Amino acid sequence: MSKNSGENPKSRDNRKGGKSKYDGKPSKYLTNSTGKKKVADGVAGLPKKNRNNQGQPMPKFDDKIRLNKYLSNAGICSRREADTLIESGTVSVNGTVIIELGYKVNRTDTVKYDGASIKQDVKRYVLVNKPKDFGIRYTDDPAKKSVYNLIQKASRELLEPIGKMDRSACGLIIYTNDGDMEKKLMHPKFKVSQLFHVVLKTIMSEEDLEKLTKGLYVDDMMFSAQEASFINGKGHNEIGVKIFSNKSNKVKLMMGKMGYEIVKLDRVEFAGFDKKDLPRGQYRHLTEKEVSFLKMS
Q1: Which of 37, 63, 136, 232 is in the most buried spot, having the most CB atoms within 10 Å?
Q2: Residue 272 gets which letter from DSSP?
Q3: Which residue, 258, 163, 268, 271, is CA-closest to 215?
């Protein structure tokens, strides 16, 4: 059984020096979860170009939020307009009029505007096992299948997908109305864990399997996998590939660079969650404990 794995120095575990309770579980898609250090030599492709991809500051999660954001999230007005309302003395918190810009409130506080109570939208987090040939965005075209058809009863609030996923791909994706969570998981500095079960049209060579963790250039950008191995009990056209990246198309681009055609691309783990007890086409709400894990990771 051939296998190869690498260590990503920018992964969450290596940055913080520890592992969450979601890490370290054995997976049938990878024959080895320990990993070896990447080899600097033998990298395929063209020289890497200098680039700056730092993105905006990582959002911070707090039990308290600014009053103007609270008003904006409730759909009362924009944040800038909320500042004007606050200064005019028409907003109160727990019976006290607030005119201080930057004032923070708890989500359990009673906030009123012009004497009327304001209810903050409930944050929803839904994990979906997307089937193949389903789009992740809403469409009113009945001829095109969408994940929204599967989760229409999950929430009254409008939910948006975190990240991208091709219609031809399948597997786990999270939908939420929490903009800060979406920004965090898709931030360039945050390397979200993703594990794919890849089925190729042809058999992959040992040499090409090794390239996945050594790294190769795709359009002048260096891509590499954290771990990669042939799946136990399957042919050498079925591979488990683990990446730490905010990009969902990284595996597809690496396979295409080496000339392999993907028959099936299934994301079996995403951001620490797996599809155990979640059949294809089904969804479940994340627990408070799971949401807290995402915020702290």
Answers
A1: 136
A2: T
A3: 258
- Residues 184-194 have pLDDT tens digits of 999 988 889 99
The string of pLDDT tens digits covering residues 142-184 is 889 999 999 999 988 789 999 999 999 999 999 998 888 999 9
Q: Six-digit token pair at 30? A: 């990878």
Per-residue H/E/C for 194-215: EEEEEEECCCCCHHHHHHHHHC
User: Domain extents for the chain?
Assistant: 1-55+121-297, 64-106
Cα–Cα distance for residue pair 90/116, rounded to 1 Å: 10
Residue ranges of the chain with pLDDT lower than 50? 1-3, 5-22, 33-42, 45-52
Architecture of domain 1-55+121-297: 2-Layer Sandwich (3.30)
The two tokens of residue 5 are 């794995």
Alpha carbon 154 to its chain's center: 19
CB 172, CB 268: distance < 8 Å: yes
Report the candidate in 271, 277, 235, 195 with the shortest Cα–Cα distance to residue 5: 195
Contact predicate 6/225, CB 8 Å: yes
Query: What is the pTM for the complete model shown?
Result: 0.70
Q: What is the rounded distance in angstroms from the CA atom of residue 40 to the CA atom of residue 234?
A: 30
Reported as type and span, the H/E element at residue 79 is helix 79-87
